[in-house]
């Protein structure tokens, strides 16, 4: 009964010519699963999964879509997910690839299938992180890759507003967090500026900006901009090549029409001479009027053909001129676009420079105007902000002291304690 229900819900794609089309469809269906399984991330409670299941049927060369099972699932408090026809399946501590394999095997066993269904398991949402302590808005926040302590504190509204003694530390750390963000944006814009200058100079490589030569995070930015530059350059080259091919084709057409024009000109000369002779004979009564009319018609047809050839040749030359103009326009638009993008990047850099100066001024003001500034550790230039995370390690909660740039993991509890460093 369950098998017939699934058959009624199945969507079929008939194979064309061979099993290549079906295999390609199946590969596309499982692409997200391979991406998700590339990382050895272990699932945990409250992780959200997107599951899709399909089955390749060798008997009739089609794909069955198990839509009744496909959908979004959440790892429950027991560490399991509940699937139709399969029931509860343990997921906590496993990778998405392992879950995909188990789903396919369970369905094959449940329905005694000849071909094992292929499951795609994609991590659609990480389990959240939690902030507590001296933050403005403690609570639960969504996790995102590359989330660090300082970013998580920013999500929670920064340090908690407290008495005058702690307000100094809060203002300092907030200004410092802004400065970190501005510095990251500045690095991206500097590399973008270098890429635009390389494109304007028609260079094949991008020179690393001097400001970023000692920064380890600059190389990935440079690689990304280099890939973008190569893609844009290939697109422009293809467009210019298409115009060059069109001009070459039109030029060949003009040359061919010129040869036809020479041939038709000679034929017109012959037809005109023949017509003149017939007219002389007709005037002397030695030629029939029908022959005279035929000679005139032949000369007229030859002349009309020659006019058509000349018209087509003129049109082809006009098309060549238009292609030349299109090439000039394309190059001018490209140069104008590069100049505009460079101008925008430089304007954004100037704006970020002002924001950085403002953040530095705010940090300096937090030091000088606080009544408790004498208790600030000026030798290190840092307020007394202590961070720690509570993380499950081997099934047990463990508190670990961390720094503001420490990368977080899903499910972490971040504890923030703000104060002033005592001398």
Q: How can the largest sheet be summarized?
A: 5 strands, mixed
Give the SSE string. Answer: HHHEEEEEHEEEHHHHEEE
Give helix % range: 40-55%
Low-confidence stretches: 1-38, 371-382
Question: In order across it, which strands form the biggest sheet?
Answer: 8-7-11-9-10
Computed Rg? 38 Å
Q: Can you tell me the overall shape?
A: elongated
Return the domain count: 3
Summed over residues and divided by their number, the pLDDT gives a mean of 80
**Beta-strand residue fraction:** 15-25%
Total number of β-strand segments? 11
Please describe what this structure looks like:
Keywords: Coiled coil, Signal. GO terms for molecular function: polysaccharide transmembrane transporter activity. InterPro entries: HH_AprE-like, Poly_export, Poly_export_N, Soluble_ligand-bd. This is Sugar ABC transporter substrate-binding protein. With 423 residues, this protein is an alpha+beta fold. It has three domains: 80 residues, wza like domain (wza like fold), CATH 3.30.1950; 71 residues; 202 residues, no CATH class. Helix 6 runs antiparallel to helix 8. The N terminus is likely disordered.
Question: In short, what is this structure?
Answer:
By secondary structure, the protein is an alpha+beta fold.
């Amino acid at each position: 009964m369950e098998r017939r229900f699934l058959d009624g819900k199945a969507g079929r794609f008939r194979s064309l010519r061979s099993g290549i089309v079906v295999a390609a469809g199946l590969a596309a269906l499982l692409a997200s699963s391979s991406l998700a399984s590339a990382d050895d991330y272990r699932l945990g409670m409250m992780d959200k999964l997107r599951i899709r299941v399909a089955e390749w049927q060798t008997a009739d060369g089609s794909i069955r879509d198990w839509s009744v099972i496909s959908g979004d699932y959440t790892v429950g408090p027991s560490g399991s997910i509940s699937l139709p026809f399969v029931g509860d399946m343990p997921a906590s501590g496993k990778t998405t690839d392992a879950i995909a394999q188990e789903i396919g095997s369970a369905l094959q066993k449940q329905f005694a299938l000849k071909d094992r269904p292929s499951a795609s398991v994609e991590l659609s949402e990480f389990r959240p992180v939690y902030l507590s302590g001296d933050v403005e808005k403690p609570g639960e926040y969504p996790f995102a890759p590359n989330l660090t302590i300082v970013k998580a504190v920013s999500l929670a509204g920064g340090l908690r507003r407290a008495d005058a003694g702690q307000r100094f530390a809060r203002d300092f750390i907030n200004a410092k967090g802004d400065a970190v963000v501005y510095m990251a944006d500045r690095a991206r814009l500097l590399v973008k500026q270098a890429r635009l200058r390389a494109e304007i100079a028609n260079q094949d490589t991008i020179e690393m900006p001097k400001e970023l030569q000692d920064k380890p995070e600059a190389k990935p930015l440079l690689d990304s901009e280099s890939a973008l530059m190569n893609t844009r350059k290939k697109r422009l080259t293809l467009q210019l090549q298409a115009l060059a091919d069109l001009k070459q084709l039109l030029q060949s057409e003009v040359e061919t029409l010129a040869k036809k024009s020479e041939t038709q000109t000679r034929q017109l000369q012959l037809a005109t001479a023949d017509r003149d002779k017939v007219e002389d004979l007709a005037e002397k009564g030695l030629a029939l009027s029908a022959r005279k009319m035929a000679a005139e018609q032949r000369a007229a047809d030859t002349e009309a053909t020659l006019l058509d050839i000349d018209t087509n040749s003129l049109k082809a030359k006009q098309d060549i001129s238009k292609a030349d103009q299109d090439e000039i326009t394309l190059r001018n638009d490209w140069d104008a676009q590069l100049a505009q993008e460079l101008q925008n990047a430089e304007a954004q850099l100037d704006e970020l420079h002002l924001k950085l100066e403002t953040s530095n001024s705010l940090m300096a003001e937090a030091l000088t105007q606080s009544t408790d500034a004498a208790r600030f550790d000026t030798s290190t230039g840092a307020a007394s902000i202590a961070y720690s995370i509570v993380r499950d390690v081997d099934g047990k909660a463990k508190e670990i002291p961390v720094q503001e740039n420490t990368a977080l993991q899903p499910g972490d509890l971040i504890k923030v304690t703000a104060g002033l460093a005592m001398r």
